[in-house]
C-alpha cells in the first residue's frame, strides 16, 4: 500500500494499477489531492475523461464530508476487476461522529451543516454501487464502485 500525502507533495509517482492509493484527508488541500489521484487512477484504468471526472467529483464530495463532519479520515482508491468488468473502487472512512439517520442522509435534501444535503445522494446516483455503514460515535465508511462503460 502506498500513501499519498498532500497536493503539493505527492508521495506517489508510479505504481501498478492493481495497487491501492491511500490519501489521508484532513484539509481542503487533501480533498484536491484525493480528487486528482482518483482522476489519474481512473484514466490509468482505462476510464474515459468523462467517467474519470465523475469519479473525481464523487471522491471530492466524500472527502469534503470527512473534513466537514469528521475532521479527518482517509480515502482509499483502487482499480478493480470483476470477471471481465473493470472499474474503480473508492473507500472513504473516518472515525468521526457517524450518521444518526443514514436513510435520511442518503435520501438527499437534508443537511446538518446548512448545506444542500445533496452530496451523498448525488454520489449514489453517479456510481454503480454504493455501500454505507455508519455508527454514531464510531465513524462512517462509504464504499463506492463505478464500472467502466
Ligand atoms: N463522514 C460523515 N460523518 C458524519 N456525518 C456525515 C458524514 N457524511 C455525511 N454526513 C451527514 O450526512 C448529511 C448528508 O450529507 P451530504 O453530503 O449529502 O450533504 P451535506 O454535506 O449536508 O451538503 P452538501 O450538499 O454540501 O454536500 C450531512 O449533513 C451530515 O449530517
Ligand atoms: Mg456533503
Automatic annotation (TrEMBL):
One of its GO terms (molecular function) is protein serine/threonine kinase activity. InterPro entries: Anti-sigma-factor_SerPK (IPR050267), HATPase_C_sf (IPR036890), HATPase_dom (IPR003594). Residues 32-144 form the Histidine kinase/HSP90-like ATPase domain. Keywords: Kinase, Serine/threonine-protein kinase, Transferase. The keyword tRNA processing does not apply. This is Anti-sigma regulatory factor. The lineage of its organism: Bacteria, Bacillati, Candidatus Sysuimicrobiota, Candidatus Sysuimicrobiia, Candidatus Sysuimicrobiales.
Amino acid at each position: 500500500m502506498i500513501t499519498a500525502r498532500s497536493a503539493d507533495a505527492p508521495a506517489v509517482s508510479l505504481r501498478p494499477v492493481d495497487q491501492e492509493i491511500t490519501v489521508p484527508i484532513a484539509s481542503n488541500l487533501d480533498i484536491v489531492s484525493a480528487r486528482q489521484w482518483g482522476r489519474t487512477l481512473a484514466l490509468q484504468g482505462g476510464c474515459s475523461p468523462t467517467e474519470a471526472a465523475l469519479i473525481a467529483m464523487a471522491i471530492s464530495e466524500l472527502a469534503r464530508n470527512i473534513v466537514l463532519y469528521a475532521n479527518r479520515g482517509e480515502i482509499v482508491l483502487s482499480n478493480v476487476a470483476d470477471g471481465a468488468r473493470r472499474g474503480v473502487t473508492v473507500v472513504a472512512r473516518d472515525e468521526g461522529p457517524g450518521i444518526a439517520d443514514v436513510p435520511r442522509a442518503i435520501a438527499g435534501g437534508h443537511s446538518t451543516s446548512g448545506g444542500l444535503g445533496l452530496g451523498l445522494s448525488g454520489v449514489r446516483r453517479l456510481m454503480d454501487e454504493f455501500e454505507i455503514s455508519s455508527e454514531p460515535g464510531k465513524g462512517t465508511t462509504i464504499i463506492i464502485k463505478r464500472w467502466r462503460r
